[in-house]
Design goal:
Order of helices and strands: HHHHHHHHH
Strand content: under 5%
Shape: elongated
Structural class: mainly alpha
CATH class of the largest domain: Mainly Alpha
Number of strands: 0
Radius of gyration: 18 Å
Number of domains: 2
CATH topology of the largest domain: Rna Polymerase Sigma Factor, Chain: A
């Protein structure tokens, strides 16, 4: 962990006012992206985002830099706060279950042409995934997080995350084929 991060954590633990602003400036965009992938309504996402930082500031004394980077620790809080928020709301869409897709024989293509239609199909397919599945895909492909970091964020183990990623990719492929 960097010297600046050590100082920031120390300042946060001592409740120095400027430290909170430094935390928001440095980590706010990453946390908001994580929240918004799960909580799609912007107003709700902003509410959850604030809750994440309130919880982080309250829990900074328990933060252990040996277990995870500050970014990963904040993403873990954001992930759980977002899922808790979404679970507390009525789902806006009914998620397709894998068995209802009925395309088990389709193989996952190694590469698809990255044209606008493919990207649009992918975005529509991602919207069908559960909030947890969307978060795992986003952390791996968009944030380039390791399986170990994703496991820490989701409270899982790396091998389970690897299996989930594989299953989610197959599910995405089947969803795209049905669109």
């Amino acid at each position: 962990m960097g010297h600046e991060t050590d100082i920031l954590i120390d300042d946060l633990r001592q409740r120095r006012p400027a430290a909170c602003q430094r935390l928001l400036t440095a980590y706010g965009p990453t946390v908001f992206r994580m929240v918004q992938r799960i909580v799609t309504c912007r107003e709700d996402a902003e509410e959850v985002y604030q809750d994440v930082f309130v919880k982080a500031l309250r829990g900074i004394g328990d933060y252990d830099p040996r277990r995870a980077s500050l970014t990963t620790w904040l993403c873990r809080i954001a992930y759980h706060e977002s899922l808790n928020f979404v679970r507390g709301k009525k789902p806006a869409i009914v998620y397709m279950e894998e068995q209802n897709l009925n395309c088990e024989s389709l193989e996952v293509a190694d590469e698809a042409p990255p044209d606008e239609q493919t990207i649009e199909q992918l975005e529509r397919a991602l919207a069908v995934l559960s909030p947890h599945e969307q978060a795992v895909i986003s952390m791996f492909y968009y944030d380039n997080m390791s399986l170990a970091d994703i496991a820490y964020v989701t409270g899982s183990i790396p091998s389970t995350v690897g299996s989930q990623l594989s299953r989610i990719r197959r599910k995405l492929y089947r969803i795209i084929k049905t669109l």
